[in-house]
C-alpha cells in the first residue's frame, strides 16, 4: 500500500514539473517552419530595416537546416544585416566565417566586397565627418583591412561585378594610407625630428609611389634633408619634385584645394 502511494506521488510530482515547464516556456511561432519560410521571413525583416529580427530568423534557419543552400545565403545576409545595423565587428566576423567555410562559393566575391565596404565605411564614420576630422589623422587599421579585402576581391575575381567599384575605392585607400604617413612626417617636421620625418616621407613615397599625397612627401623630404645639411640628397629630391610636380602648390605654400576630396564617397 505504501509503495502504491509513493508511486502515485511520484507520478503527480512528474506531472506538476512538466506542467511548470510548459507554463514557463514562450511558444516558438517558427516551430515547424520550412527553410524557405524562415528565409522569407528573415528577408522581409531585412528589407524593412528590422535588422535584429532578420538576424534572429537567419540564426534559426542556420540552426535547423545547417546544410541547406538557404543556410549559406543566410550567413551572407547576416553579415549584411549586421553591417546595416551599425555592428561592424559582428559583420566582419560573419563575413570571415563565411569565407572560411565556403571559400569557393559562387558569391564569395560579394562577401570580400562587403568586408571591404564595412571597413571602408567604418573609416568614413559619421563622427569623423561631422567633427571635421581629417581621415589621415585617424588610425589607419580600418583602411588597411579594407584595402586587403578589396585587393583580394580584385585579384581573385577580376571579372566580378564588384571589381570596378572595388578598384575605385582602392585608389582612395592608397592615397589615404600615404596621406597618413605624410601626416606623421609633417608632425615630425614641426617637432624638429628631421630624421624621423625623412624616414616616414620616404616610406610613403616608396610604398605608395602613385599616391597624390607624395607631392607633399617630397616637399617634406626636401625640407628634412636641407635641415640635416644633406645637400646632395636635398638637390636630388628637388629635381624629382620638379620633374613630377613642376607647379607644386605644396612647395609654394598651398597645401591643395579647400575641403576634403575624399568626401566624394558621401555625396
Describe, in plain words, how this protein is organized in 3D.
- The chain has 267 residues and is mostly helical.
- It has twelve helices and no strands.
- The chain has helices at residues 2-24, 35-47, 51-64, 69-84, 88-101, 108-123, 126-130, 141-156, 163-190, 194-207, 214-227, 231-244.
- Helix 3 (51-64) packs antiparallel against helix 4 (69-84) and helix 6 (108-123) packs antiparallel against helix 8.
- The longest helix is centred in the middle third of the chain and has 28 residues, at 163-190.
- It starts with a helix and ends in a 23-residue tail after the last helix.
Brief summary:
The chain has about 270 residues and is mostly helical. The chain is about 70% helix and about 0% strand. The N terminus and C terminus are likely disordered.
How would the blueprint of this fold be written?
Layout: H1 2-24, H2 35-47, H3 51-64, H4 69-84, H5 88-101, H6 108-123, H7 126-130, H8 141-156, H9 163-190, H10 194-207, H11 214-227, H12 231-244
Helix pairs in contact: 2-3, 2-4, 3-4, 4-5, 5-6, 6-8, 8-9, 9-10, 9-11, 10-11, 11-12
